[in-house]
Automatic annotation (TrEMBL):
One of its GO terms (molecular function) is DNA binding. Keywords: DNA-binding, Pyridoxal phosphate, Transcription, Transcription regulation. The lineage of its organism: Bacteria, Bacillati, Bacillota, Negativicutes, Selenomonadales. CDD domains: AAT_like, WHTH_GntR. This is HTH-type transcriptional regulatory protein GabR. The keyword rRNA processing does not apply. InterPro entries: Aminotransferase_I/II_large (IPR004839), HTH_trans_reg/aminotransferase (IPR051446), PyrdxlP-dep_Trfase (IPR015424), PyrdxlP-dep_Trfase_major (IPR015421), Tscrpt_reg_HTH_GntR (IPR000524), WH-like_DNA-bd_sf (IPR036388), WH_DNA-bd_sf (IPR036390). The keyword Lipid metabolism does not apply. SUPFAM superfamilies: PLP-dependent transferases, Winged helix' DNA-binding domain. Transmembrane segments: none annotated.
Amino acid sequence: MWGIALQRHSEVALARQLYQILREKMTDGQLRPGEALPSTRELAKQLALSRNTICEAYEMLAAEGYIISSQGAKTRVADGLQLEKAAPAFTENTPPAAPAIAADFQTGRPDIRQFPRHLWLQLLRKATNELSPQLWGYSGPAGLPVLRREISAWLYRSRGLAAEPQDIFITAGATQGLKLLAGEGQAMILEDPCHSGLRQVLQNRGISIYPVPVDRQGLQTGNLNRNGACAVYVTPSHQFPLGGILPASRRAELVRYARENGLYLLEDDYDSEFRYAGPPVAPLYSLDPQQVIYIGTFSKILFPALRIGYVILPRRLQARWRHLRTYADVQNPPFAQAALAEFLQNRKLDRHIQNMRRLYGHRRHILLQTLTAMFGPGWSAWGDTAGLHLAVEFPGMRFDDMFVRHCQSKGLRLATVETHCLRKGEHRDKLLLGYGHLEPAEIKQGLALLRTAFPA
């Protein structure tokens, strides 16, 4: 009847299939408004189904208003159901398959092969089993108190940064923290160059951006001016992407500027744990906790999929933060938070950082050594001896999108500093080489491919 064909071996129940078929016939006009449907007994006989199956399909149609039925009357199709056929879904042309990547110098990637996954899974299981029943519900937008206490203790012993646990708020990574802090339609001052992904996050929120140039020592504070911005985004401990450390005089000038103009400094401390010529740099936050919002993340230290970061907020912003986080996504899942708290408490994080600092320091040395071997003296490194990437200047070269595509055709993935610039043209001779996730052999293979991409 009506061309109804049911798939009797499908995982979709027969009643659901019948409901979908009849609904489609009503919306495309095959079954017209007011048209009577067969009785459940009659349709069951025609389709060789149980009457219960037909009743279930009719009940679904009636619940959603597709049919009208009443005691002693025929079941009929409701009015106003017909729809025009939807336009075909837009499909993009499938791009040609990219060549296999033999060497990948992407930035910001830790070596997750070195992470103690077995230990982490043990802690995750233990923390989940011991988590109190109330924390399986809504635990609030601030984060687990135990994790906030452990982050406070870790920041103090690793950086000398004194922050009260109640001022620390857990985030789903540094990017979420920035999105919540940046009010829609406002203006912000950004370093130039600055991470292009972060810039896109701000622009997607309608933020106006005022770029301030960066040199080998970071943000050029002498170029700040009164432009109505609500905040300055800065990476003072290891400027991304050029790698400079903001000197004390510029830090003081930046704090004075923030005070005089009534704005906040958003300090993104994304990878200062990995410094290879001395301890981590003291945060800008320590100069003025009421004017600086400190943003930290565990993505570079542990593994990106963890999605746990934190912000240290001045007290006057905390109520607003709780409101925004509550109506964004409420909270991070408590299980990973509890496991991370124990990872911090038993100093496993401290030891992991020490191990990775040695490993990354060695890989950085291999990268510099191989650059010299393959390119001679015709290059220079920018920035402090820290982090998971290196900015490399090749005087006289001009790296653009065509060069990046040329490298990709050879199986080499990398980025230019120019990609992260708002004002183009000043850093065309610089490449970014991420090395933290690469074995020495992979570093050497990648630089060999880079050498072949250079003009003869």
